Amino acid sequence: MKPVDWSEVREPTIPEFISVSRETEERLAIYADLVRKWQSSINLISPKTLPDLWTRHVLDSLQLFALRREPAIWLDMGSGAGFPGLVTAICLAEAGEGWVHLVESNNKKAAFLRQAISKTGARASVMPVRIDAAVESLPDIEAVSARALAPLADLLSHSAPFAARNPAIELWLHKGLDYAEEVRSARDLWAFDLVEHKSHFQDGSVILEIGNLKKSN
């Protein structure tokens, strides 16, 4: 089979309900191209999802910006290839406000994230450490994101130190088909307000908007 020439790939149009500028769309296309180029040497995403990179990863992550457009100081946990944190940071570039702290302990993935920031002008920085090691060195975080990282209860545990400093913190967590069971399990340990936003691109998936996070009595 002839290898795909990714330089000839043209990204699909971004849906109107997300509504980003042409400049942001171009930045996202540069980012997507970088993911494809680095994928051959680093396993950034599941190889089987590479042909569907734009919808499966970029647009899925862009939903978060559509839901939470106001610039904020973000923590993106376990950033990996940058979904959704780097996508948010690219969207913030045009606004000139807000920031995303990308926490990724894998040094190779952290190197990719730095390259992507440099090429796209994203409003982000990379911390190549584990999440618990980042608590003391980050400023007050206003919003937290994570995608395909860990069970919900674990994500809430990672977020708790930041919530203790800022009770108004918002958590925006991408979850798949088994999210309802994860929510039930998490409520055994945590109390929180919850809004479920259904995914426009992944059947059965959601973005969980969580606030007022506290340890259960």
Highlighted features:
7 helices; disordered N terminus; Rossmann fold; globular; alpha/beta
Describe the protein's topology.
Layout: H1 22-39, H2 53-67, E1 73-77, H3 85-95, E2 99-103, H4 107-120, E3 124-127, H5 131-134, E4 143-147, H6 152-165, E5 170-175, H7 179-186, E6 190-198, E7 206-215
Parallel strand pairs: 1-2, 1-4, 2-3, 4-5
Antiparallel strand pairs: 5-7, 6-7
Walk me through what this model shows.
With 217 residues, this protein is α/β, with parallel strands linked by helices. The chain has a single domain (16-215), classed as Vaccinia Virus protein VP39 (Rossmann fold). Helix content is 39%, strand content 20%. It is built from 7 helices and 7 strands; from the N terminus they run H-H-E-H-E-H-E-H-E-H-E-H-E-E. The protein has helices at residues 22-39, 53-67, 85-95, 107-120, 131-134, 152-165, 179-186; strands at residues 73-77, 99-103, 124-127, 143-147, 170-175, 190-198, 206-215. The chain has a 7-stranded mixed beta sheet. The longest helix is centred in the N-terminal third of the chain and has 18 residues, at 22-39. The N and C termini lie far apart (59 Å). The model is unreliable at 1-9 (pLDDT under 50).
**What's the alpha carbon Rg, rounded to whole Å?**
17 Å
> How many helices in DSSP terms?
7
CATH-derived architecture: 3-Layer(aba) Sandwich
Helix content: 25-40%
* Helix vs. strand class: alpha/beta
